[in-house]
Amino acid sequence: MSRQALDELKQQIPLLNYLQAHNWQPARRLSRGRLMGLCPLHEDHKPSFLVDPHKSLFYCYGCGRGGDVIRFAELYHQVKFPDALALLQQWRGLPSLLHEVAGFYRMQLHRHSEAIAYLDQRGVRTPEVIEHMRVGYAPGGCLRGWLRQLGYPLQALRQAGLVTGAGYDAYTHRIVFPLEGNLYGRSLSATAPPHRFLPGAKRGLYPEVILVEGLFDYAVLWQAGFHNVTCSMGNHLNAHQYRQLCDLPRTVYLAFDADTNGSGQQAAQSLACRLREQGMNVRRVSLPDRQRSAGQRLPAAPPYRHAHW
Ligand SMILES: [Zn+2]
């Protein structure tokens, strides 16, 4: 890549935007617009990460590392320079591409009765929750043509992981939930792998306090009127989600599903301990077992047991 192209890339991706997209928040403001916050490159307990948004440079007084947005991408994703460039180029084009893709899948949802039937079976029924979560469906076969028409080159679709090497829609026959910077796809078929994400970090912790493991748990609770739900996308929190959850003193209700082998409950217990150490008030919610008789159906509880998400 030429010097000029490098400068262009850096200009198009201000360091502060990239940091914020990776959940970094300043803890305080210094003179000349500079910001100080926790270092995303190591476990940091008091803010030691200095950002100069005007110069698009960072320096950490804790780990002694610093540089521009490319250096940050290298360190944060633990990749070499050329891969950091590829990641940044991809990230620059990704939000608009994902916006188009999510819109396309949403249009398809109501044209495919198998998708609506699946949502219904998972307890996701009201138009409001489908609208709120921007739920869509990937019927397979037409995404690529649609995006080519909009001017996206096939290479970009492959790079983003939307289209397979063979040119097929990677989310075919999946219910799709748009996330910040990613898409979650749940397969309708029992033979395909159940969960799919685009390569890259699973992001998108919602900012409130009933913590559930999966997006279907989230949908069912939201539909039942609990709008302060947040989703951990699994029974462990990554460092960023953990930090976000602990940024204010809160009461966190852990509503993790009961596994047959108890792994979900064990994870919930250890997470509860860690949150309490951070001064959080933690309550564990025990979810009722699956009700087999339709007459006993509990709409506020996920109507399934062993499959998360
Ligand atoms: Zn550091």
Taking the alpha carbons of the first and last residues, their distance comes to: 41 Å
The ordered string of helix (H) and strand (E) elements is: HHEEEEEHHHHEHHEEEEHEHEHE
Number of DSSP-assigned strands: 13
CATH level-four homologous superfamily name of the largest domain? DNA primase, catalytic core, N-terminal domain
Question: With helices defined by DSSP (H or I, 4 residues minimum), what is the helix count?
Answer: 11
Oligomer class: single chain
Instruction: Look at the structure and give the mean pLDDT.
Output: 81
Sequence stretches where pLDDT stays below 50 over 5 or more residues: 201-206, 291-309
Folded structure, characterized:
With 309 residues, the chain is of the alpha+beta class. It has 3 domains: 3-77, DNA Primase, Chain A (Alpha-Beta Complex); 94-197, Alpha-Beta Complex (DNA primase DNAg catalytic core, N-terminal domain), CATH 3.90.980; 210-296, Dna Topoisomerase Vi A Subunit, Chain: A, domain 2 (3-Layer(aba) Sandwich), CATH 3.40.1360. 37% of the residues lie in helices and 16% in strands. A 5-stranded antiparallel sheet has the order 1-2-3-4-5, with helices on one face. A 4-stranded antiparallel sheet has the order 6-7-8-9, with helices on one face. It has a 4-stranded parallel sheet with strand order 11-10-12-13, with helices on both faces. α11 links the parallel β12 (251-255) and β13. Residues 201-206 and 291-309 have low confidence and may be disordered. The structure holds zinc ion. Residues 39, 41-42, 49, 60, 62-63, 65 line the site of zinc ion.
